[in-house]
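Chapter review. Work through the record for Long-chain fatty acid--CoA ligase before attempting the end-of-chapter questions.
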Amino acid sequence: MPFDVKDILRQLEAGFAPESGAPKWWQESWEDPDGFAIALAEGHAGRGVPPPKSRPGQQYDFFHDLIVRHVALERPAFRTHQRIQGWQVLGYKALHDLASRRASEWADQGVEPGAKVCLVHGVGQELLVSLLATLKLGGCFTLLPPMGPRAMATRLEALTPDFIASEPHQLPLLKGYEQLLLKSQGRGAPGFTSHTYKPSDVVGLLFSPLVDPPHTPVPLTAEDAWKGAIGDGMLTFGLSPGDLLAAPDFPVLQHLPALLFATLLRGATYLHLEMADLALNPAPLLEHPVRALGVTPRLRDLLLRHRASLRNVQHWFRNPEEPFDAQAWRTWVKQCGLQAVPSSNILIDAAAGGAVLMSSRNVTEPHTDVHTDVFPVPGRAWTLKDPNESGQGAPSDVGVLTLLPDKDRPPGHVVLARIRQRYHYAGTQGFRREGRTYSAKEVTAALEDVPFLKGTSVVPVSTGGLASQSRFILLAFTGAAPAPSSGEQEIHRRIEMSLGGDFLPDRIEFFPLFPHRVEGAVDDAWCASQFFTGALHKKAKDPMFQALTALRSRLLESAAASGEDGPPPAR
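Structure tokens for Long-chain fatty acid--CoA ligase:
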């Protein structure tokens, strides 16, 4: 099908009313994603820069298209602000030189096409340089930002990397994998050409928090990565060379490298700011014109407290899976002076290549400036499947968004509701925290050796509402003894130290009881049933159950002292 890219860009810039559904070209792009990608690639080649070497459906040279094309124009590729050093800017030319030298060093250490390279970096210059060095060599990258040692060990064991790139101070997190560390001293001599991937080549293995369990490496093909980058760069965010894109507080594992690829492919600048720094001083966010700003509820509330005026923002977007507090968003829009600034809903899954849902980028009516409208992004084949998980198509107008082809893809989790020609985000399949899975098994395993705990279980609870938000409650069983006064603080400390802050439950409930076990493991189904029926609360206050719990505790202590197995747990 023929696609007029210039007209498409004009329509997106002007916005469209969602009542009439997606424009005709948008719907046709779902039916002909390959033809649409070819049209975007032709429209992407700009004046003053070399054309991209990649050819949709044939070959993909990420290093050339992301970096080499823009070297001569001396544009900034990455910009960040630090409390002491102030603004730090990394240009395309400097990034090209650093990544090329690192690639040369790594080639001498054995990194070759297809090698699995795990990048243990926070967001910053080191991550960018290592990522691009891997792409130049044709490696398969994995982003693994530093987290607790237990979480790191679980993911490294699942990944089995060939090489690891990290900074020296992260060494304690890599216990047992030290021999895989790559050395990078900046002494390499750049000179060889970059690698070209085939469409089906796996360019990345990503730990997507949208997948259950989240420590499962998800393959990202070169075709998905490149098509997602060009679609997001041109259409989702409307980036032009020199524009700034920023998404403070957006979860790294869900959104990178997709946001980086979309930004660099268009010759734009990725602006990275840490929330901890913005909490002290949001001024750096206001100092440069931002073409597209991603806003989380936490950033929204921070800017409200500081009474910031965002006159430098040309388009802002939110994740539709986050809590839908329309009043708070409207207050924020009014206070920050964004009434005339286009906004949109955008759901990004880096393991799928980039955005999978987006709404029109326009200015909406005062009372609908925050909405649930979304469409599957242009250029992706998709279908709605029945929520019963049978694999059949949705018989009604409500179903689970499934990208096609769905073979070898993780199952979809987003529920869409179709009302006439409009689509609305209607929640998730199963319990999730803002669309992301909560790794309950990792949490309970990390608490197994806490002295005052006799077992733990995580129970998800729906809060109701439009977006079907979930809370995860940790049930902490303490046996015959009550929980110590510092019990909640100790559990938080243990989870943060061994896993990371993202693993903290929303609430902790203590019960002076023993949990039911099956073959030695806590019976999660029993715990959930007892919690929801109120049985745990009743038993915790019932004198008879407390006496039985004390007796059971004495029996278990006697059995442990004699070296015998304890009595089987009673219901």
